[in-house]
Design a protein that fits this description.
By secondary structure, the chain is an alpha+beta fold. The protein has helices at 2-16, 37-166, 169-249, 254-264, 279-282, 287-311, 429-437, and strands at 20-26, 29-35, 323-326, 329-331, 334-336, 339-342, 348-350, 355-362, 368-373, 378-388, 395-396, 401-405, 416-422, 425-427. The longest helix has 130 residues, at 37-166. The chain is rod-shaped and about 200 Å long.
């Protein structure tokens, strides 16, 4: 029955596709190949399918090429915007730092002037008190002399009375002359004391006038210092808060980070040392000194953050054109523990932070790989390199070239596999890169 159906189908197809013969002549022989309707239909369908597949594949390749070109152009534009923003923020940061240092210098000058004026004021106050004590002594002496004069006058009257009744004129005249001389001496002494009192009063008034002028000048200097403080505090707020946010967004404990950096940079003294005065200079508490020490503490925090930023992987491992090909997370049923960046073979790879090379060799599926140990328990890995440019144990700086992009190890194409690990546990590298973009 199957044969009958096949013959009927063959006859039906012959009406539309007649049987054809393809003759092949070789030397003295002639052969032919019979092309049945079924064979012809299969050949046509196969050719059509092949042509359609070719057209579709070509279109896909063209679309992928155009898309890759757009991605590269977009990556170049993003890179240019990022670098422009980085340069702008770095310039602004430098300007803020220069303003802070200049303001600190102005503040130190103003503080020295205030200290000098206060010293003069204290000296003037001491002089005024000394003059007051001198005036008190002079007045007490004057009162004592006046009392003595009254006593002598009374005694003189008594003596004169006795002389009139008991002695002659010569004796009376001699005694009166002695008493008159004593009275003249007392009067001269009183005049000297009065002149000294007037002079002391004049010096006291002059000292009081100088004290008022010094107080006004100190008020002016305090207002000037307050304005400088406000500028410094604003500059510190603008400079420190973004850095503090950057480290927190990266998941770093800022208190632990500050302690660890201070242990490595524990020098004492210099411009960053807290300001201190003796109690008899400015009193038991002075808000100016507290504000100055607060600003110095912020400057110290800013310096520590600047050092820490060099030691944590906030920068990109690539500087040229590239595209992201795979992110951190599950992929094809497995955990992808890093981020992949694709670019041309041989593209330079750079260290993302200061550190020490822990591995620089061929390592299994990673191919040629470089491990770098950083501060705070952080390690970065750069895999599938074409060439390694550093050695194990070598100390590297952020932005230093450590290798070339390649396709070594278990890799499907030229790219960089970049990992960040904290205390041995892998984390998303883009957390650090995005946190760094907000500041740098």
């Amino acid at each position: 029955m199957f044969t009958t159906l096949r013959l009927q189908l063959h006859k039906s197809l012959e009406h539309f596709v007649p049987e054809k013969r393809l003759f092949l002549r070789t030397g003295s022989e002639t052969r032919f190949v019979r092309l049945s309707p079924t064979t012809q239909i299969i050949a046509v369908l196969g050719s059509t399918s092949f042509i359609a597949w070719t057209i579709i594949a070509t279109a896909i390749v063209l679309m992928d090429t155009i898309g890759s070109g757009n991605f590269r152009d977009q990556a170049r534009r993003d890179q240019a915007i990022y670098e422009e923003r980085l340069n702008s923020i770095a310039s602004e940061r430098d300007n803020r730092t220069s303003e802070a240092l200049a303001a600190q210098q102005r503040f130190n000058t103003a503080l020295a002037q205030v200290s000098s004026m206060q010293s003069e004021l204290l000296a003037s106050e001491d002089e005024r008190k000394e003059l007051e004590r001198g005036i008190d002594v002079i007045q007490a002496t004057l009162r004592r002399t006046m009392n003595q004069r009254e006593v002598l006058k009374t005694e003189l009257e008594v003596i004169v009375s006795k002389l009139d009744t008991e002695s002659g004129i010569i004796s009376s005249t001699s005694t009166a002359s002695g008493v008159s001389n004593a009275m003249d001496y007392v009067n001269d002494t009183l005049e000297d004391v009065a002149r000294e009192r007037d002079s002391a009063n004049a010096r006291a008034l002059q000292a009081q006038s100088q004290t008022s002028g010094l107080e006004l000048e100190i008020q002016f200097l305090e207002e000037k210092a307050n304005q400088i403080f406000r500028q410094l505090e604003d500059a510190m707020t603008i400079s420190v808060k973004p850095l503090d946010k950057m480290f927190r967004n990266a998941g770093l404990d800022t208190n632990r980070l500050l302690k660890q950096i201070r242990r490595g940079y524990s020098g004492q003294g210099g411009a960053m040392s807290p300001i201190s005065f003796h109690q008899n200079e400015l009193g038991p508490s002075d808000i100016t000194v507290d504000r100055a020490n607060s600003i110095l503490a912020q400057l110290d925090r800013l310096n520590i953050y600047r050092i820490a930023a060099e030691k944590a992987p906030f920068s990109m491992p690539l500087k040229g054109s590239f595209r992201f090909t795979s992110g951190y997370g599950p992929r094809w049923g497995q955990m992808h523990r890093g981020t992949d960046f694709a670019a041309r073979s041989g593209t330079p790879i750079y260290a993302t932070a200061d550190g020490v090379v822990a591995r620089a060799e061929w390592w299994g599926g990673y191919g040629r790989v470089v491990y770098i140990k950083h501060a705070f328990g952080i390690e970065t890995r750069y895999a599938h390199l074409a060439k390694i440019r550093v050695k194990k144990g070598q100390r590297v700086s952020r932005g230093q070239k450590i290798g070339d992009m390649g396709n070594s190890g278990k890799s499907t194409g030229t790219h960089l596999h970049y990992e960040v690990r904290v205390d041995g546990k892998d984390v998303n590298p883009m957390i650090y890169i995005k946190a760094g973009r907000d500041v740098f």
